[in-house]
Every structure is written in structure tokens, then in C-alpha cells.
Design a protein that fits this description.
It is built from 7 helices and 14 strands. By secondary structure, the protein is α+β, with helices and mostly antiparallel strands. Strand 10, helix 5 and strand 11 form a beta-alpha-beta unit.
Length: 279
Amino acid sequence: MNFNGELYDSHPAFPEISSRAMLYGDGLFESIRMFEGKLPFLHLHWERLLTGMNMLGFQTPAHWNLAFFEQEIKKTTIGNARIRFVVWRSPGGLYFPQDNQPNFLITATPLESNVFSWHENGLIIRLSERVRLPLDSFSGLKTLGATRYVVAAQEARAKGSDDVIVLNALGNVSEASGSNLLWIKNRSVFAPSATDGQVTGTFQKILYEVLRREGLSIVEKPSTFAELMDADEVMLTNAISGIRWVRILEGKEFTCENIYHFNKLTVNYLIEKLAVDKP
């Protein structure tokens, strides 16, 4: 792991410097996928992270840029891996901080595959009854305060499902516990609006680009759970797993013909990016 540029074989002990992360959840994180030592979509994560640091009032060091963090990640691990990149505010103060300088920690978990894999069996999904997501300007950030997503994941496990769909405070569909949500109806692709409380997805941006290249567009709009249930196909997307299709949602079975095609397109897009990006 990599703590502020220093490599460690095991998790270092730094209770004081990490106090604001533990006491207030005062920080952000990114889950990034490395393919054969390459980071073809790192720029999307950096954009989201930088946006979050600015919104939270971090005093971001001048040398913290895309090139710096690509170097730090590749110093930490190689090959195929799931990268967790965490930043948090320096210690001092109660709710009002005394020091806005950020710290960072990079950890890596090896992965076997060097591409996004197709999930043949599909997912079994339920509707969350316990969690509703708030709607404000911070909704799109991946903050360390992820309690709602933890509870949603617990609810999914308790229901014997792979995940749950989480509604927002207005009762419209938002996302799953760790993925963005899209669906297809009459060959049109739909997603919640950008103000529906979901995390701003990096893979969702990749998928949008791939679909635009095919002449397809995505309709973003507030939608009820009933509208989602009326879909022909439903999918979850995130930066680690890519596209996963939903086979059963609250007892209804869905198909995956278009989603399977979208997955092939995104894998080809990834292969293109890997061919031009240097390690």
C-alpha cells in the first residue's frame, strides 16, 4: 500500500493523522480498475475526485494531478487489480476543520481477468425498503460516509439477493448499493436524472461514449420504480465489474439481448484504449 507516497507491506499505524476520516468520515474515495498495469480510465476518477476535493474545501497540493497519481498507483501495484484510492483531511478541529491539507492512501487487490467479464447468470435484485438517498449537491460524490450503502448491501444479503435498488427521498429510482442503474424499454436506454441522488458514475460515462459511437442516446429522467419494472432489460454498471445484467427484479424476469451487445462494445472499447495507452 501507498500512504502519502511511502510504500508499506502492511497497513501502517496512523491513528492521529487519519482521525478526521474515522471521526467524521471527512474524505473521499475512488475504486479504480487496473488492466495489465494500465489505467485507461483514470482521468474520469481524477475528475470526480478533484471535483469532490474542491467541493469539500480541501487545499489540494499543486503537484496533485492526474500524472502524479498515475505514478503513485503504478508504484503501488502492477498487473490486473482493483485499486482503492482514499483521500481525507488532516487532523484538527471538530466539525470545523483546522487544517484542509489532504492525505492519501492507495491499496490494491489483485484481479484475475484483464477485461470486463460477462456475468452469464444475471443478477437477482430486490427493492430496498430501508434506505432512501438524500438529494443535494454532494450526492454525486463518493464520500467516506457510506453508511446507507452498507445498510443496503446488508439488506440485499438478508433478502437472498445480489443487490437492491435504492430510491431517493422523492421515491424515484436512484442506484444500487454499489452501482449505477440503467434500463432499456423499446430499444431506448434510460437512466435516472443527474439530480436523482446517485453517485456520478465513471463507467456510466464510458458506456455513454460507447453508445454515442453507435448512434444511440440515453434518456435521463426521474423515474418511478413502476417504470423500472416496466422495462425490457435492466443493468447495473460500475468501474470494477463493468456491465451486469439483471435477470430477476422483484420476481419479474428480464432479458439481456441488448445489454449483451453493449457489453461486447465496451470490451472492444477497452481493448482499443489498452492498445494506445502506454503502461
